[in-house]
Structure formats: C-alpha cells, structure tokens
Write a structure and sequence with these properties.
- Helix content is about 45%, strand content about 0%.
- With about 70 residues, it is an all-alpha fold.
C-alpha cells in the first residue's frame, strides 16, 4: 500500500512521495475502475507507437549505451 508507505518496490513507492502523482495514487487506490480505464487507454496509446524495426532501429543491449 503506497499511501501507507509500504510499497513493495522502491520505484513504486516513489510514485507516492509528495509529488504530482500522489492524487492519482490515491484515486487508483480506491477506484479500481478508474485505474482499469486509464490503464486500457494507456495501452491503446502505446499500441499506436510505431517503433523502428530492422535496419531503421536498434535494440540496445544496455539502455545507457548505443550498440
């Protein structure tokens, strides 16, 4: 529970740390439908991204470094 400062992962707990996302954490904590709706909308947006493929793109072995 992020609001109770009992986040399982540090990265998750950082979502609720007196920042701009606190209101969303509270909303999603009490309203699973809002979370499901917004998550679905985000997945649709992600699905519309056209990643570069083949010789036009690059899958990095280490995200910090160009291969």
């Amino acid at each position: 529970n992020l609001v109770a400062k009992k986040g399982l992962l540090h990265s998750d707990q950082e979502l609720f740390n007196n920042g701009t996302q606190d209101s969303l954490v509270r909303l999603y904590g009490v309203n699973a439908r809002a979370f499901a709706r917004d998550f679905a909308a985000a997945m649709v947006k992600m699905g519309a991204i056209s990643p570069l493929t083949g010789t036009n793109g690059e899958i990095r072995l280490n995200c910090r470094n160009v291969n």
